[in-house]
Amino acid sequence: MIFKNRRTFIIHAASLCATLATADRAFASAPLVDENDPAVKPLGYRAKASTVDSAQFPKFHAGEHCANCRFYTGGAHDAAGACPMFPGKSVSADGWCNVYALRA
Predict the structure, then answer these.
(1) Domain ranges of the chain
(2) Dihedral through CA 26, CA 28, CA 33, CA 34, nearest 10?
(3) Domain 29-92 falls in which CATH fold?
(4) How far apart are CA 4 and CA 6, in angstroms?
(5) 18 — phi, psi (to 5°)?
(6) Which is more confident, 58 or 23?
(7) Separation between Cα atoms, residue 88 and residue 75, nearest integer Å
(8) Which residues form the High potential iron-sulfur proteins family profile domain (predicted)?
(9) What does the pLDDT look like over 9-38, one tens digit per residue?
(10) Are 41 and 57 in contact (CB under 8 A)?
């Protein structure tokens, strides 16, 4: 890129610096779901599937966790990922909720 004068160079350099300074926010992952959030409680979300009370949630079976749920969109080796049940938030790959459905 050729700059015709020093002013255009400074303007482009300043905009590049501003872009780089805010880039980490654009690529940051969504915040994790809070188990104590009143909107989350009806779904029975737990960040660790091992802490699910099977008396309260009889649908739960050992070995079920978000990473093998059909709704989980995180990668196979990610610690957390997105779930449409909790828009704008991430769920723990080791978590579980009452909407769990085994990935086919």
Answers:
(1) 29-92
(2) -100
(3) High-Potential Iron-Sulfur Protein; Chain A (4.10.490)
(4) 7
(5) -65, -40
(6) 58
(7) 17
(8) 27-104
(9) 777 777 776 666 665 444 557 899 999 999
(10) no
